[in-house]
Amino acid sequence: MDTLHQLSQQQQAGRVIRRGLPRGYQDYHYDVNGRLAKKVVHQHGYRPQEWRYLWNTQNQLIRCFTPSGDVWRYTYDAFGRRLSKTKTVDSEKLNAHPAFPVLKPRVTAWHYLWSGDQMVEEAPVYADGTVAYDAGIQWLYQPGAITPTARYQKGQLHYVVTDHQGTPREIFTEKGIASWAGRLNTWGQMVFWQSHDGRADNDPNYTECHFRFAGQYEDRETGLYYNRFRYYDKDSGQYISPDPIGLLGGLNPYSYVHNPTKFIDPYGLSSFDPFMHGEITDFPKDLHFGQNRIAPNFSSIGSQADPLIAGRPILDVANDIKVGHISPDTFVISYTIDPATGKPVTLNNRGLAAIIESGKYPQHAIYVPYEKVPKHLVKDILDRPPSRSISITQNKDGSGLNKIICCKN
């Protein structure tokens, strides 16, 4: 096996165009809008296998044509949440011999139910259009969480154990029996320890879990991970379409987070990663705010915040830090030096506000050179002088004041 060739990738304009395999290679072809249109796998001694992809005007994947001849269709709501996937062409059924009809009802689609940003149910749909709610899977979450903590199907409750990133690692029955376990490599390829393979469908411990990195859901028919606003390719370690937030997501619009062992991108809208450009320093005691006001909650969309923090009220998080439920070291506080005043200015105003309100500080921060700071963050610094206080307000015009946070040193 040629290990170096296996791991090699060729890129063009930040996107993978060829990836080496142990006994062949994969070619990636993109349309004029930079979206993956075709993937061809070449294995020595085998015919090429080709996947084709169709997109709508919202840059959402709506069709996938697989090498076996299956065709899958995907639908979404106005918030980018996937509502269904349907096998519109079933190659196995087309190729079935008339003398051997398929006796078992075939699942040809899945419907998904959401509560905010949480997918709370997935229900199979048979070929005759019947939705099998009795065979559906309900997922239970902690408030504001991205990854489920429990799974309920056919009267059976299972508990989900995740790692520090919110990636499911094990699923247990109420009696503590492991019914599923797996792990991901650095860029998300799944290695199963224990799954449903070889078990009967009526096995009480039969479970499935398609959740991967936080916010990702694997589609076995394509091998892609649905990642809310985009699809992630675990083989190349990149997304298959450009970042919807453009260069606010970084210089490479196809890249996943810089360090998957520390960061997540649950919505496919990865934001600025200070570790790419900065260096770890002691937490500066005279750190200033770079804005006059902030919204009451931590961001969800486009944020790399820890799942314990994302989307939650700042003051609630501050209280959790104060009582010891959240460590202040959970925060990645980055900062730069304001060239006009020479003062350190944070690039994480909401995180700094929560830390100051709690009275507990992290040991380290990340210094980012001013010339490496994204333009939209530089604009905040240029528009106002560094401040030792910041207002939490409901509205952007400063009205609806919740609280003023002031530095205590």
UniProtKB/TrEMBL annotation:
<dbReference type="InterPro" id="IPR056823">
    <property type="entry name" value="TEN-like_YD-shell"/>
</dbReference>
<protein>
    <submittedName>
        <fullName>RHS repeat-associated core domain protein</fullName>
    </submittedName>
</protein>
<dbReference type="InterPro" id="IPR050708">
    <property type="entry name" value="T6SS_VgrG/RHS"/>
</dbReference>
<dbReference type="InterPro" id="IPR006530">
    <property type="entry name" value="YD"/>
</dbReference>
<feature type="domain" description="Teneurin-like YD-shell">
    <location>
        <begin position="153"/>
        <end position="243"/>
    </location>
</feature>
<keyword id="KW-0677">Repeat</keyword>
<dbReference type="InterPro" id="IPR031325">
    <property type="entry name" value="RHS_repeat"/>
</dbReference>
<dbReference type="Pfam" id="PF25023">
    <property type="entry name" value="TEN_YD-shell"/>
</dbReference>
<dbReference type="InterPro" id="IPR022385">
    <property type="entry name" value="Rhs_assc_core"/>
</dbReference>
<dbReference type="Pfam" id="PF05593">
    <property type="entry name" value="RHS_repeat"/>
</dbReference>
